[in-house]
Amino acid sequence: MRSLTTPPALLLLAAAAVGPPSTVEAYAIPPRRSPSRRLPPRRRKVAASTTAPSSAREPPRPRPIAPSPLLDARARRDVATAVASAAVFASALLSPYALRVDPGGSDADVSRPPAASIERCDAAATTEGQRRVSDAWFAATAQYYDPTFNGLGESGWRAKEREAMDAVADAGPDDDGLVEEAIGTMLKALGDPYTRYLSPERYASLTAYATGGNQGGAGIGVQLLEDPRTKMVTVMATTEGGPAAAGGVRAGGAIVKVDGEGVEGASAEVVAAKCRGEAGKAVDLDVLRGGGDGGSGGPTEHLTLTRAKIDPNPVRTTSFASPGGAKVGALRVPSFTTETVGQMVDALRSLSGSDALAIDLRGNVGGYMPAGVDAAKLFLPARAHVIAELGKPGSPVRTYDADGVGAETTTPLYLLVDDRTASAAEIFAAALQDNRRAVVVGTTRTFGKGRIQNVQPLEGGGGIAVTRARYVTPSGRDLHGTGIVPDATRPGGTCGADDLARTCLGDVADGW
Length: 512
Fold this sequence. Notes:
Blueprint: E1 2-3, H1 8-18, H2 21-26, H3 41-49, H4 69-93, E2 97-102, E3 115-120, H5 128-143, H6 153-167, H7 176-188, E4 196-198, H8 200-210, E5 222-227, E6 232-238, H9 243-247, E7 254-258, E8 261-262, H10 268-275, E9 282-288, E10 300-306, E11 316-321, E12 327-332, H11 340-350, E13 356-360, H12 369-377, E14 385-390, E15 398-401, E16 413-416, H13 424-434, E17 439-442, E18 451-457, E19 463-472, E20 488-489, H14 501-505, H15 508-511
Parallel strand pairs: 12-13, 13-16, 16-17, 17-20
Antiparallel strand pairs: 1-3, 2-3, 4-19, 5-6, 7-8, 7-9, 9-10, 11-12, 14-15, 14-19, 18-19
Helix pairs in contact: 1-4, 5-6, 5-7, 6-7, 8-10, 12-13
């Protein structure tokens, strides 16, 4: 074992117990000095020169009895041992650290006080790779919403950490792939496709997407989602006017190769990172048609696209007349980011005077959860429930309610959805549906993602996404795996990914 810097909490315990006697005694109990007991200078001079009767004199103060050096040293050693024992127990919970205690001299030799030091165990993290494994394990343990860890129990989940530590025991500074694979294998034991390790590139991509940025300079204008049912990265939507839309990429296809390299089994963040690059440079894609189900009925197309600068998450507006003559203002919301609510407010102002509003959520895979909640508040009265967040058993339920400030609560509202509408977009749609504020229109159920993740950075530039809670809608529905059933079902597939909002809504705004 090699000594490390003592963690502050344990350092304070050890210092209080085994520090030099003079240090402890100097700050133990300072003498009390009351200003009221001091005589003024003049009175003190008289009192000093006056002889008072012996009965009036202040009795002499007793001399303090010096403590026995033997008892004093033994007492300090007993206190140090008790504190060190508590610290040993605490250190067992703070892997990869352990506390080594030197009990000092024997009962016959108390001149040497006990000593303690914090050291890293040989069986714990000793390499950079092992420390990264340990950091990821602790992050998942602290936040994961299932206290059974997918039935593994605490001991089984810790065993997964030990397996990952063993796998990277010999990893060197350049073995990032081995470390990431070990962390990924460890997290897969939780059985949750949304709890995952994020490489530095994936972490940067995900955080840039959530904040509305364009990480990496240029791209092709697609929204991607790793479908847990097919294990393939599916195109959920394309940016209007972007290289993907112009080059023939359609929603529902699955990307299987980027620049000739197979990406089956890769995450959506990895595929997105491979699609980005320098503006004006070409990228080759192999796209599997037919919804990405991997069946023989879906042909694979080879496409060559040119990367370009793209505003990835704009809210776009348009207006049209329904068959009955109603003026409909439409908002296209491709995702939810930190910029979305502000963009929606501006869009609503530009559409003031409309007889009805239609918000197009087709292909919206979600994104930043608080943005979905805040967007719903724009259309709900005060104290209306948006969602309830349920974390680990025993933790308090967190509810999100509308405040009603500046909300648009009167104009008829319609939400266009499909099977690619997911996550934060489902939070938004379900809140308005359950509060009877909007009519949900579509041909199929929505995707059905009812779990909430935290994304946080880890040492080394990467990050981790951990499912910290599930949510239920205002009526108590858990949408995970089931999705939202539309109120108005459009027959004959007239609300597909490539259909205009006008076509999708049809005459629903006239007869509902």
